[in-house]
């Protein structure tokens, strides 16, 4: 039986996070990003476990005490010493697939979004987690450069991605569209790939990851970023993206139900003024809930309402991500879901 890439709403054991070290790019914002990550852990732990890679034993001890004080059940928390370069677990974490009905994690190559940033420790983090027994299922290495934020799936054989990222020569220069699509179909068990030609966010280092633009909410529903300001420099590309989405068809030939997410006011870095990639598409689906990034903007409430309609029966939990976008990512970028049956039961060293 072939592999099947699991959708984000597949039952999960845990969400994986990577805690920042004091000497990382987060240094000027360390207290703020730690507060955001604390809020995420507390929220997620109400529903399932959290696996956190931490830079050293001292941080592990501190966080164990801190989360106990915050009421997080010890059984819902795994703190594992595994140093990393940065915190973007979506892109250096493993991808969950099903193989013969059992979970399997695939460890793809991460190069810091095409060599933009140091990524040696990030690229080996999954292997270090394997070495300390963090996972209960097999983990297989792959030689393809592929980030989790670059793809999304309906769990029924359709993969959604962007040309700007996966076809960028800074990722897999030896593979053209046909060869890359063949690899994705073989390794992830998808039967078709939907390529988006439009859409980008200023301040995005990922070359237009799909998880900043368009997301599956269920096999028939896509939530996407809509820019309603013709004076905004994003307007032409996002309008073209919206047109593309209206033309997309499901495998059965039916159109997708489209859920437009609002456009927040421009967010700018307070130091040098460059624009930051604030997006409501960077939400995280967990067991029984959806965590949604917010930015202290009037559009926050409309985004929460739109996603509440897209995810009936799930709790909608806002997470302040103003600090996260200072490093050009958001909530989904910080996380990787681990499918049911993949997390080891025993506390990790």
TrEMBL record:
Pfam families, per the entry: PAD_porph
Gene3D superfamilies assigned: L-arginine/glycine Amidinotransferase, Chain A
Keyword Metal-binding applies: no
Keyword flag Hydrolase: yes
Key words of the record: Hydrolase
GO terms, biological process: putrescine biosynthetic process
InterPro entries for the chain: Peptidyl-Arg-deiminase_porph
A GO molecular-function annotation: agmatine deiminase activity
Name listed for the protein in its UniProt record: Agmatine deiminase
Protein species of origin: Halomonas ventosae
